């Protein structure tokens, strides 16, 4: 039996993502964002989406596109960043946001793909993260409508001392959306440098994971030692066009002065 997980188009790959679906989305800032899959979602009708991602794109790009269309109902993220629409919807009570320490978010995704239902971490002990009362949703008048519940805290012996840890649940999502530099038809993926970021974790967290790849190769062409995410975690692979591959935004363009150039 020949395994071929390649799909003809991004639209076909996301066609079964329906209302209320939860999505684990790779990327960090603008690096490694599965923008082609997100664009395909934006052309569909799925709404009331629950998204888990390090951040929620920027204004007019990445997950920011779905935000502007009011298609996202809830976000689990580590920060709001410079996405003004993200912050506006959160403070206006249009969007529920669960802010989570970045390392905790990463481990919640990894745990989901490893069959670990929960884990203890010291991150957040003694703060709203553990004690509750973190504003999840605001009311239109600016008051807090929904807050986070308190979490279980236990002490463990660490180097002869009793140290408190907070219990965090794994983050299983209906779908994982990721972008890879290279993939094969079996779903094995390779990421390029910083674009690796949250992508392997999002791939592990999704019950059905869809990968857009800049280069699609035949099985066996990727050295097993180079595989970052094995195909067991990936269910659909979409090969990008040259134009789609080249469409990469830069959040903050920084130029180095040439030799002898005076500073302005």
TrEMBL record:
Its keywords, alphabetically, are: Transferase
One function term, GO molecular function aspect? transferase activity
The record, for SMART domains, names:
CoA_trans
Q: Which Pfam families match?
A: CoA_trans
Similarity comment: Belongs to the 3-oxoacid CoA-transferase subunit A family.
Q: What is this protein called?
A: CoA transferase subunit A
């Amino acid at each position: 039996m020949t395994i071929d997980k390649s799909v003809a188009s991004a639209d076909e790959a996301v066609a079964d993502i329906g209302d209320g679906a939860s999505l684990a989305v790779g990327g960090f800032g603008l690096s490694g964002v599965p923008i082609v899959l997100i664009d395909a979602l934006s052309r569909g009708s799925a709404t009331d989406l629950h998204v888990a991602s390090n951040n929620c794109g920027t204004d007019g790009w990445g997950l920011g596109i779905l935000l502007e269309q009011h298609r996202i109902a809830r976000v689990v993220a580590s920060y709001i960043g410079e996405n003004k629409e993200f912050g506006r919807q959160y403070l206006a009570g249009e969007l529920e946001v669960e802010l989570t320490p970045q390392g905790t978010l990463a481990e919640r995704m990894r745990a989901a793909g490893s069959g670990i239902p929960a884990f203890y971490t010291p991150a957040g002990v003694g703060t709203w993260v553990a004690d509750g009362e973190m504003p999840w949703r605001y009311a239109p008048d600016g008051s807090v409508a929904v807050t986070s519940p308190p979490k279980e805290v236990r002490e463990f012996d660490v180097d002869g001392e009793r140290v408190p840890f907070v219990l965090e649940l794994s983050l299983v999502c209906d779908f994982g959306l990721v972008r890879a530099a290279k993939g094969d038809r079996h779903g094995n993926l390779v990421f390029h440098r910083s674009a690796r970021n949250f992508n392997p974790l999002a791939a592990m967290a999704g019950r059905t994971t869809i990968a857009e790849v800049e280069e699609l190769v035949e099985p066996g062409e990727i050295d097993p030692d180079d595989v970052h995410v094995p195909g067991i975690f990936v269910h659909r692979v979409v090969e990008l066009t040259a134009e789609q591959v080249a469409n990469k935004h830069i959040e903050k363009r920084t130029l180095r002065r040439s030799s002898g150039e005076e500073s302005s």
